[in-house]
Amino acid sequence: MMSQLSAANAGTIDVGGDLTVNRLGFGAMRITGQGIWGSPPDSDAAKEALRRAVGLGITFIDTADSYGPEVSENLIAETLYPYPDDLVIATKGGLIRPGPGRWQAVGRPKHLRQACEGSLRRLRLDQIPLYQFHRPDPKVPIAESIGALAELKNEGKIRHIGVSNFSEAQLRAAEQITPVVSVQNRYNAADRSSESMVDLCEQESLVFLPWAPIQGAGTSPAVAEAARRHGASAHQIVLAWLLARSPQMLPIPGSGNAEHVAQNIAAASIVLDPDEITAMSKAG
Fold it and tell me: Is 115 exposed, middle or buried (0-12, 13-18, 19+ CB in 10 A)?
């Protein structure tokens, strides 16, 4: 019997111990223009993708002030505000955009405060449920950057703090300043460089958000074989594998196309057998 198409089929996860979301989320980077710059080619299609995601049980959306820049956050608010009670919106600060496809880390406390307060305005929120430091700035000590977020949390503008593109040593430095509830690093079928961070998050009940979760999906024979068996796409199989990899994994595939969103959400209903999971895990 087929399960109803819903992100709820992935089960749930607690973010920070007090925010329960379905364990398949939506990444809102791709609702912008080429090079993650400017408006999407079809704003109505991007808005429909957001509506479809929420309509199919997505309760966690991940975005950033640098997506566009500002475009993704504005579209989320224009499309979904007032937000459903169970929707958790996470955003990030710490990158600026010199141009299409270009990213520059800025971790100065003054910039992070301005970034956070700008996100609050654009998202029409009084408090950001999960605010993530987008990338360490080699010119600014992590303690200074994370200290700025801790101040914003103390002021009630941030509920929980997360980090992105962090090593274990950088995470430990951040944890000396304030509790950290999530790590968002690149992790997919082709890139397992954050394998140890996934394990750490599982051991310490932190949420792990894999970015670029479906990249490299077509390069693994184990993925192709599982896709054939399940009558699914390689993208769907990789998402199912991520869900099986760790109970602390919260994949956030994104798309500006409503049909692609629905296809990604269908992965929540795919149950891989242990041999398939092992084969894909070894393939990395």
Answer: buried
State yes or no: pLDDT of 1 exceeds 50: no
The number of domains in the chain is 1
Which long-range contacts link 140-145 to residues 24+ away (Cβ below 8 Å)?
Answer: 140/107, 140/108, 142/107, 142/170, 142/173, 142/174, 143/173, 143/176, 143/177, 144/107, 144/108, 144/109, 145/94, 145/107, 145/108, 145/109, 145/112
Using CA atoms, how far apart are residues 53 and 48, in angstroms rounded to an integer? Answer: 8
Total-model pTM: 0.97
Segment 216-274, tens digit of pLDDT: 888 889 999 999 999 999 999 999 999 999 999 999 999 999 999 999 999 999 999 99
Check which CATH number belongs to the domain holding 13 and give it.
3.20.20.100
Q: What pLDDT is recorded for position 2?
A: 52
4 SS3 class: coil
**pLDDT per residue as tens digits for the range 61-81:** 999 999 999 999 999 999 999
**Does 70 map to a domain?**
yes
State how far the Cα of 33 lies from the Cα of 110, in Å rounded to an integer: 28
Residue range of the domain that includes 177 = 7-283
Active site amino acids: 67
| Residue position matching structure tokens 């977020």 | 149
Q: Which DSSP symbol is given to 96?
A: E
Residue 20 lies in a domain: yes
